[in-house]
Amino acid sequence: MAEPMLCATSGVGLVAKGWVYELKLDGVRILCDKRGKDVALWYRTGRDATAAYPEIARGVADLPIDDGVLDGEIVAFDRAGKPSFQRLEQRIGLGRPRDVQAAEHEVPVAYVVFDLLALEDRDLRELPMVERRRVLQGIVPDEGRVRCLDWMEDDGTALFDMCRRERLEGVIAKRATSRYANGARTSDWVKIKCQSDDDYVVVGFTRGTGGRGDLGALDVASYEGDDLVVRGKVGSGLGDKEMRALVTRLSALAVDAPPAKGALVPAPRGRTHVRPEVVVSVRYSSWTDDGHLRHPVFRGVREDVLPADCIAAPPSSTISEELAAYYAAVGSAMVPYLVARSAIVDAASLAKVSPPIRVRTTGWLVFDADARSAVAAGALFRDLGLPAFAKTGESADYHVLVVVGDAPAAGVDALASIATHLVGAGFSRVAGATILAPYSPIAGAGSRVSAPLAWDEIVPSLDPRRLTTRTVPARLAKDGDPMAPLLRAHVDFNLAVQRLEARLSGTHGGPT
Question: What DSSP string runs through 160-223?
Fold first, then answer.
């Protein structure tokens, strides 16, 4: 079963050669499988959505193909023609045929398609994104109930400015050559937001006053690694209908103790803690100093999002005492990378530097990679005799670092191009003079850090979000630093080039 490819939240700007920019839609992500006239729709959680949007199923059934798998978002529009999640929420979760039939007329929706994963008997996910999109444009019209999303190449500035002017969500930047990474979050697709809104898990609710009745506000939280952390309370934006439905639903999930860490806002009229199963979308202006949402507004329940995917965090959610304790635990491993790159001089200085901490890439070749391509690249470079190491990345899943020493720039560039071609999709060279230092906390990612890994640890089941300021010190104390040889590695670049030439020519073995 296909799973939706997910976006990173940083990694590219609004002007970038080889990237395309499209509107970020304020809807629900829907994958669609067409088999003749039979059509199945499902949310990104895997839950079936076909019965909730019968008009979309009919529209897909009429497309001029026999079989295909589509990716897009179902969107409802307000009176100004703008995507409106609040309107769409009236359709989400409807089950009774009578209610769905009435909603078809009251809240019409469109399926805005932006990718094609399969066509007839061919899997298209390994094709470059622009090739998939060109095929899609020949199948799905530009307007109507089922329509194809437009894009802009190399420069998303005008689109982003329009989003700011019209108070729309923002844009999605996509690498033109990217393959479809099934179920993965990679830096090949990047969200660039105009508005601050994210998904949070409800961990409790407080009683209201006056007309608010049994529900005054929702306690919301998000994950930092394995921990749920309180992000504040949300009361604004809750209408009577939403409050009644949420009180009924959340009361059935009541528990005795709070499931999330962190300080809760006092609740004079009482608080009910609940199991973290309901996800809501919240718009907010910024973060408070204590890591809570500022001016939060409820936007709706997200039936299409799993609680584990709620990872939004303030730019510096880790308190200074915790950072100091983390640096004390990892300083002896981290400082050598910084000293070697003249980034900082001693462990005592670490706690004075705001994350992220960066180091120069001189003498290293660095790539962004997903799990599959990271493992393939590691094997390739080791076969060539070039020391290669991996760590979790900032926007991509992983960084692959290759020691090239003082090799000539032209030779390094050629090697990078050939390696990118050999490894394939999900693997790209990092541009720029600096990268995130090993063991540096990642800004805007809660307590997550850029953690060095042994090659046999990089498997699809590894979740980089679990490598945090809380978990990495114990790993380091138990297993040591798998990247430590990077700083003392020496290379024979010419020999590596000879081995690469032998590999490309089809010979075996090569020089020894």
Answer: HHHHHHHT--EEEEEETT----TT-EEEEEEEEESS-EEEEEEEEEE---GGGTT-SEEEEEEE
